[in-house]
Amino acid sequence: MGTGGRCIECNQEAKELYRDYNHGVLKITICKSCQKPVDKYIEYDPVIILINAILCKAQAYRHILFNTKINMHGKLCIFCLLCEAYLRWWQLQDSNQNTDPNDFIRYAKEWDFYRMFAIASLEQAAFFTGIFTFLWVERPTTAKKKPDFILLLKALLLSSYGKLLLIPAVIWEHDYTSLCLRLIKVFVLTSNFQAIRVTLNISRKLSFLAIFSGLLVESTMVYFFQRMEWDVGSDCTIYKSQDF
């Protein structure tokens, strides 16, 4: 007997996802609410599930978030931040051409990378803070029961996997790199939008407003850094830059 989870079609809780008979024969449970298979993705190849997730299908998100045990949120977050920090560091070095082999220069460049990582982390924290603040204020309308913000945080971290595409976009530099970076940003935001909608089972309007609130707080953080005259290389400038 499979463990409990959620129906990927109607989002209702299910006591079991499938029944495991002898010799590994599985029979997917039928949802009592919508009369559809609780989770058809149990029989799907992981590549198909990934493709459906890239297409931002709600069913694929429910399967990943509710019916699988993925414990790579922290590692994925760190790796995505490293990718974003590398992009910012790369653009900073590209704008400050210096071929001096002096050790001090190399140490300064290394410090620049750590600084970009810290700034990227703060901006992501600001983005998430904006989302959680909005949903906390709107919690009477977001769900009948108390929202699971821990699950939502994990969902947001997982749905930010699109940032991994930043490195290939930089390595294979071409005339359309700036366009690729914009498209990556849109894809990540779309994935975050779907993660919020699926996790909390709320309307598209509230999910959009949550993303907008996150961007607003993040932009405020970027403005603060710019006022401090830091070379932040933030999303607001990275994805709009034409100097590649």
TrEMBL record:
UniProt-annotated location(s): Endoplasmic reticulum membrane
UniProt KW keywords: Endoplasmic reticulum, Lipid metabolism, Lipid transport, Membrane, Transmembrane, Transmembrane helix, Transport
Topology versus the membrane: Multi-pass membrane protein
Transmembrane spans: 113-137, 149-170, 206-225
Domain of life: Eukaryota
InterPro entries listed in its UniProt record: Arv1
Function: Mediator of sterol homeostasis involved in sterol uptake, trafficking and distribution into membranes.
Family: Belongs to the ARV1 family.
PANTHER family: ARV1, PROTEIN ARV1
The protein's name: Protein ARV
Organism: Felis catus (Cat)
